[in-house]
């Protein structure tokens, strides 16, 4: 069990300045503890797909219906979304909007609000197709926001300033034609005419943006596409969002132009910028295949400059999918249902040099080799959400044991508390 008392941890977290923090924006000075905190609540069914941090409130989205506080036997009904206090772990009693279908993406909003995207069509029986802006105080929708996402679901969200970037497999947003990617006015949901980047030429049946990561000037997107505005960008590309209008960045890679197993025509999944934006970490699925493929891997790509880029390093699981990644400067955390890392010669097996890292692991940002950090988790489907913040690393998945303890579908690994904290 976590050695420090809950009161000490709560004090340390409350000393952290409030504000929106997301993976890719927070630098850690070291690797998080392998011992999860004891205060996180439990999600009792389904899967957690997304986590956002709004001030000191954690918002959790996914496909589930029941939650409870740590140490409590009281089961609370929550329709695919709930929120809890970061320091105490207590579930917010007033935030309980009922979403009829899963939440797949979250983004912090200003003034105690959160954006939720997914497959849902109603909230508390009122129409709210696929994207909503919610108050944490009572779960009500913010009036005047009308994104009108049509033709598909929302799978990823990223916000900065007055802009909300939306990714998925939809065909319309804000009343305008937009394929899989849009930039909206964060207050009204109106589509931004200065951003009309169009992913295209999918490898599967439908164009889709799986994940996004945002810096001040660049938006990274990945998914089922091979072009952005007609330019070759197989499954991964960068967009210059500082330009007016926004344009496809000259940075490109052919690393994901190859095939994996037929069941995975598109196989790039999670991605995250380093805190300073100097590199991008990308994880994939794909299945065990022969040859020097990028299937079931983590890779680092330098992002400074332009032109064609090859990965700086690649770490293979040897046949198991990875879905989520968080780059903190001190580590590249990866999660899926993997059994191993450092396994380039494994084919659904442990090859020479493989190290066991069941369900979750950490990779050295410079060497590309697995760090000693090995808390373990029940593998299940896999980790679907990471969120790095100044107090540690939040994890969302579909299983109930993390770090050899019971933590149902949500957990947090804290940064070690030093005497000066």
TrEMBL record:
InterPro entries: Delta_60_rpt (IPR013431), Quinoprotein_ADH-like_sf (IPR011047). The keyword Signal applies. Transmembrane segments: none annotated. Residues 1-23 form the signal peptide. The keyword Signal applies. Keywords: Signal. It comes from the Bacteria. Pfam families: DUF5122 (PF17164). This is PQQ-like domain-containing protein. It comes from Streptosporangium lutulentum.
